[in-house]
Each structure stands twice: as structure tokens, then as C-alpha cells.
Amino acid sequence: xxxxxxxxxxxxxxxxxxxxxxxxxxxxNAQYSTLNHRYGGASGSNNHQQQQxxxxxHYYYRNDFLAPHGPKGWxxxxxxxxxxxxxxxxxxxxKLRYLLLGxxxxxxxxxxxxxxxxxxxxxxxxxxxEALPQxxxxxxxxxxxxxxxxxxxxxxxxxxxxxxxxxxVAALGLSQDxxxxxxxxxxxxxxxxxxxxxxxxxxxxxxxEKMEKENRELRQQFLILKQQKKSGTKKIKKSxxxxxxxxxxxxxxxxxxxxxxxxxxxVVVVGDQSSGKTSVLESIAKARIFPRGSGExxxxxxxxxxxxxxxxxxxxxxxxxxxxxxxxESDLSELRREVEFRMRASVRGGKTxxxxxxxxxxxxxxxQRMVLVDLPGIISTMTVxxxxxxxxxxxxxTKHYMSNPNAIILCIQDGSVDxxxxxxxxxxxxxxxxxxxxxxxxxxxxxxxxxxxPDRIRKILSGxxxxxxxxxxxxxxxxxxxxxxxxxxxxxxxxxxxxxxxxFQRRGVIMPHQVTSRNLSLAVSDRFWKMVRETIEQQAxxxxxxxxxxxxxxxxxxxxxxxSGRDELFDKAKGEILDEVVTLxxxxxxxxxxxxxxxxxxxxxxxxxxxxxxxxxxxxxFNTMVDIxxxxxAEQALPAKSVEAGWETLQKEFITLMExxxxxxxxxxxxxxxxxxxxxxxxxxxxxxxxxxxxxRVIQLNTLEDRFVHDKSEWDQAVKFLETSxxxxxxxxxxxxxxxxxxxxxxRITHWKSLTEDQNKRRHVKNELDKILKNDDxxxxxxxxxxxxxxxxxxxxxxxxxxxxxIRQTWFxxxxxxxxxxxxxxxxxxxxxxxxxxxxxxxxxxxxxDVVLFWRIQQVIRVTANALRxxxxxxxxxxxxxxxxxVLDEFSEDEEKKAHLxxxxxxxxxxxxxxxRQIQEKLEEFINSLNQEK
Length: 934
Prior knowledge:
Layout: H1 2-38, E1 48-53, E2 56-62, E3 74-75, H2 78-106, H3 108-121, H4 128-131, H5 136-172, H6 176-231, H7 240-254, E4 267-271, H8 277-285, E5 303-309, E6 314-317, E7 324-325, H9 329-346, E8 358-364, E9 370-374, H10 390-402, E10 408-414, H11 424-431, E11 438-443, H12 445-451, H13 454-461, E12 472-475, H14 487-500, H15 517-557, H16 566-584, H17 589-617, H18 622-635, H19 637-662, H20 672-685, H21 691-704, H22 712-741, H23 745-750, H24 757-775, H25 785-797, H26 804-829, H27 834-840, H28 849-893, H29 895-901, H30 905-933
Parallel strand pairs: 4-9, 4-10, 5-8, 10-11, 11-12
Antiparallel strand pairs: 1-2, 2-3, 5-9, 6-7, 6-8
């Protein structure tokens, strides 16, 4: 279809070019006639001469110079020469038509070049405007030239596209199936790259967070130094509520399970789901800082909000430096999204709610200083998308927070529903039966006034409806049912409602101070600070006593050690591991090559014997079979096996250094689990460079091309290598035979051992097989059918029944021992045959092909070990060092991993002591500031 379309385009364009060219010819003839008439025609002129040649007329003028195309003594008049130049230009344009057609067939690239060359070669024709006439005909002529230029461009583009399409199809040469497969391959590669990019982004995100944390610490140190420089030893003063919030944060980390008594005051906001408790908290904070959902559980984890007065209305998370401007809707939206993200991130393992606390600070003009904790709403019925223990988890979490004898309970009750449907009041009565620290809040009073009896509402706010007791009863309006309403709009609506409410029609029933969120926040803040002043010194004394007890226990158990937490221990272990990695680079090149040689032969020996040496020995042409087998080996399995041996050697040497470090007198066994985990993870991640396999393949193939032993020392080394290898293999074979045939007579007598039935049967089979090898010293490795039959019949005479497979299983190690003993004899015969070999080569009277084979293998191993040693020293040791550092950085950010790897009484006791000391110091600092404020 594409070719047909382009063919039609070629045909139409060609017709258009022919039409325009003919038009140019007619126009050029008319112009030439006009020029001829204007500058003097053929008749009536005394200064020109007409010559007739073959029916064509040529006009020349007499001049002192010879004309290029006229007879001697004649030249073209100047103005008429201009016209002749135009004619030559037009003739070139006519020739261009044939160039275009040929270029379209032969290729658009050549045509394009010719067109560009022709166009660049044209002179500047601006001078023709003065010599040639102006008018309608000349405009038509110019228009025609422009059209022919456009047509030429179209032809070039079509030809170029056609050539490109043909070239692409010819270059690819792919069918639709091949194209689809190639597309799928490319798509999978793209997906792989996307996954790698995502992993790299996650990795660098972690690095960025780490750098931000370090930057925060450095900035804090800089501010402290700057402040000290300005005011001597004066410290930066923190706000009282911020100091108190830090103490609570320390306690939250110290007692995450709430199993110990955490008696520091805080305001706990509890209520049924969708009762408006989050809205109450937002009214106190004067900003919509929490996400909302229609009937969906949004609060999935405790949110600790520290309220403080400040010049700007901002919010900030405890673990972040970013401040959200609460006067901007864009920042409010981002803050709500971040809160929702943190809540969902805290829920793991299919849970619906979490105990992880999200800490936030809100500062602004007119805010009351206090610490509030918003808890998930209490539910009576679970939905299918909730975890089975959600209801019990919420009840348990709420009880834990309310059980604090100094916690102020802000009990939220939905005024728009029946009071009998409330779940929270019964729970509050269980934790605070006397109501000494409970403040009752009735929300949605505007809806309650329309739906319920005002007298019933007055009873609730008077404390006469519920058996629950409280310090105070408050009524608030948390909204008008509009999601986009601001806190200012809600507060204005709340104030207007209470001014006109029916609840105030009777005097003395509801006092004015019991309504509005403003009065509620003042009452809660006043009660909060009163309780803080009453209890804070008692808590400081309790932690001081706990600190003394822990320090005494530490001195009794670890008198010579300083208490070090997990972070400090991890940093010390990290330094030791990195020192051992540096020691890895100090291993000598000779030791590396020896270790690599041993590991290479250990990995390759079995293949050499089973796949090269034994098959070649069974062949009539030993050397030809060896060449074929060695080349196949070097092209396929040998490079990969060599890299595997190099990696195992690097791993072995590193672990050896780690084990050696354990024997040091300064070694601390508390780091053993951590070091082992780091090494295992680093080794699991590390892989040898891919290009090393290709490099080794080239080196090994070139080395195996050498088939001649060059000197006597190499010959002796090859003989020794052959004997050592054959003896090792013979020892393995003897062990196999010993297990198969049982111990000898002397061992049976001295160690009181006897043969099993199978061992006894195999001994009889072995005797028959030894006869075969004795009669044919150069027997093939396999038994013939006649030999198997003979062995079976001879055994039957002795009343022993065996099958052919049993005989073959016995034959294999027996023949292997026979072959290896012959190989040892040949190696001994060739020990002093080097000079004979060097003169006669492969035609040597003594068969030393075994020695040459093992010399070639020895050379390959030596060259490979040298290449691997260079790779280890120059690249792999550094890459392993990098992997270890990355693993250490990841472990340092994973508190659970550190807690799992650094264990024991020494660690737990030190961690608890450090934490208690920090809390006690912060409590004392807070008490000093609190006393100063008094």
C-alpha cells in the first residue's frame, strides 16, 4: 500500500514538473522575443548581422572581443547577453526534470545533493531587476519558477521517504512475528530499566533523607554556636510547651507498650467514631489539619498535637524541618495528605489501627499551650474491610491512654444521636469513675437542637442524664456540614448559634462559659497546666530513683565498661568491619595467586578428569580429542567457573580475616552477630563484573593454543602436577572401593569388623573383573556383552546371582583405579624424557601426551589466577567494600535490625539507662523553666 501511494505521488509530481517546464519554455520564448524587439530586431539594423545556419537564426554584434559562441569578430550585445543567460538557466531547469526522474528511481539522497549543488551554484540575479523589464509577464515567470521549486522539493521529499522506507525494511529484514518478538523484548527491557531506576530512586531518597538529617544536626549546632558567640554562655531558650512535648516524645520511645506507668499529664481526646472529636481538636488548633472521610475511619493511629503560641500560624512534624503555613489552603491540603500517608504507613500486617504515635506541633497567635492526643474513634460494629481485632485494639489503646492517673480525658459525645447509643461514656466511667479528670463535650448541638428535646440537652450539660461524672460540661458546634468551611467561618457560625439558641431561653440552666470552642480550649489548657505543676516533680523524682537503680545494676554487672547504646555499638562495629575490609587489600599478590590456583583446580579438576582426560584416553587420537574438548571447555564453561572460583576465593579470604579478628585480645563478641549479618548480606548482593568472563575467555583460548612445552622446568612442573592430581584422584577412588568392598582382613581382625552381604558379593565380582584386566592390560573402559555374560556365569557357579547393572557399578571404580595407576606409571616414565620430547615432539617414542595435557591445563590455571588476582585487587575488593558500606548504612537506619543483631543484657540495660537519664535530665530542665515562669 505504501509503495503504491508513493508511486502515484511520483507520477503526479512528474506530470506537474513537465507542465511547469513547458510553461517555462513558452514564457522564456516570449520574453526572448520581447528582449530582441526592445534591443533591436533582425530588420532595419545597420549594426547587426543575421546568419542562417540550419534554419536557425543567431544574432551577433561586431566587437573587438571574440564572442564565445559566435563567429570571429562578433559578440553578443550586453543586454541581450542577459537574456541568453536566462535561457541557459531555463535549459538547466529542463535538464533538471530528467535528473529528478532518475533520482526518484535511483534514490532521493543523490538527487537532493544535486539539487542543493545546483541551487548553490546559481549566481545572484538581483541585477536583472535593472536590465530586464518589469510587468505581468515577468511576475508570471517568477511565479512559475517558484512553483517549479516547490515541485522539485516535493519530488525530493517523496524520493527521500521512499529510499528511507526501503532502507529500513531492507536493513531490518523482519517479519511481523519477528517485529512483535523484538518489540516484546524491548518492552521487557524497558520495564527492567524502570524497575532499576525505581530502586535507584529509593536508594538515593534514603541517602537524601540521611543527608537532610545530618544537615539538621549541623544547622542546630551552628545555631547554638552562633547564639553562644553572641551572648556568651547563654543557651537558646525553648518554649515551655516544646520542652514538655520533648519529654513526652522521649517517654513514648521509652515505653511503647505502655506496660509501665507513664504518669505525665496530657489531654486524651476520646469519642465514638464520627462523633466530632477531630473537629473539636481542629477548633482548638484553629486549623483543619486532619483528613476527612464520609463515614470511613480516618484516625488510624494516635496523633500527638503540641499547641503553642507563636507569631505565625504554622504546623510541623517532629521528624521534619518543613513548616506548613496554615493560612494557605495549598499547605493545609499537603499537611492533611501527609497525615493520612503517615497513618496508613503505620498500619502493617493487615492491621486497621496502629500504636505508633504521629507527633505534630501547631503554633499560632492566641493558641492555648497544651498537648493533646487524638485517638481512633470507638466503634461498636466492624466492617468486612477491618481486621478482626480492630474493635478490641481500639478499646485497649484508649484504656491505656486514659489509665494514666494524670491524663485529662476530653470525652466527646455526638449530640445529634441518642445518648443511649454512646459507647465512650461507659469506657470513661471505668477509667475515671469519680470524674476528677474528665471534661465532657457535647458536639453538633445545632443539629441536636432541631432533633432533640432542649430539656434533654440541658440535662446532659448539667450532668444529670449520664451517670458519668465530669469536671465540666461543654457544648460546641463543629461545623455547618460543609467540608470547605474555614475555622473562622465555623467559629462565627458557632457564636451566632449560641446567641440565638433556645438553650438560653431559661436562665440558670446553662452558663455562658459552658459553650463555644474558645471557652473549652481555655478550660482544658487551665486544667492541663494545673495538673502539670502538681505532678511533674513527682515524676522527676521517680525517674531519678529509676536512674540510680539502673546505674547501680550496671556497676555491679559491667564494672569496667562504659554504658553504650545500640547506636554507639553499631558505629564501633562498623569501624571494625571497615578496618577488616582495608586489611583485605593488604594481602600479598603471591598469596592471592596461591589461593586462586588452589580454588581453580578444586573447581576444575573433576571436569578435567571426567570430561577431558578420560574420554581422550579412550580415544584412538588423544591429541585431537584433547584439542576439541579444551576449546569447547574454554568457550563455554571454563570462564564462568573461573569467575566463580575467584569470587569464592575473595569470600573465603574475607571470612578468614573476620575469623582472625575474633582471636584478637580486643575482640568484643557482642558484635559477632552483626558482623556475620553484614558479611552475609554483602556477599549475597555482590556479583563479579560481567565483562570479566569475556576477558577470561580470550585469555584462556589464546593460552590453550600453545601445545609445546618450552623448557625443562615447565616439564618438571607439569609432571609433578600430573602425579599430584592423579594421586589425589586415586585416593578418592580407593575410598570408594573401601566403602564398596569393606575393610581388609587385617582391619577386620584388629578392629573386630565383618563384611556385609553386599560387600561380600562385590568382592566376588571384583575378583572376576581383576581377571579381565590382568588378561588385557589396555582394556577399554566399558565391558562387552560377552564379558558381562562370562562374569555372570562364573559367579553362578559360586551360587552368586547378580545382574549386569550390578557388575557395571562394580567395574567403574575398579577400572578407574587401574587407569590411574597406569597414568602414574606413564608420568614416572616421562619424568626424564623432556629432551627426547623436545627433539621428536608428538612422535616421541615415550607416550607423554598426559604430561602435555596437564601442562596446558596448568598454564591456563596460572594465567587465569593472575588475571583474577588483578581483578580482585583492582576492582572486586573495592566493589565489595562499597557493598559493605551500603549494607552498613541501611542497617544503621533500621532500628529493628539493630535491635535484632545487637542483643544481650549489656545492651538492653545500657539502652534503658541512657533513655532514663535523658528523660530525667529533660524533666529537670523543664521543671527549672516552669519555676522561672512562676
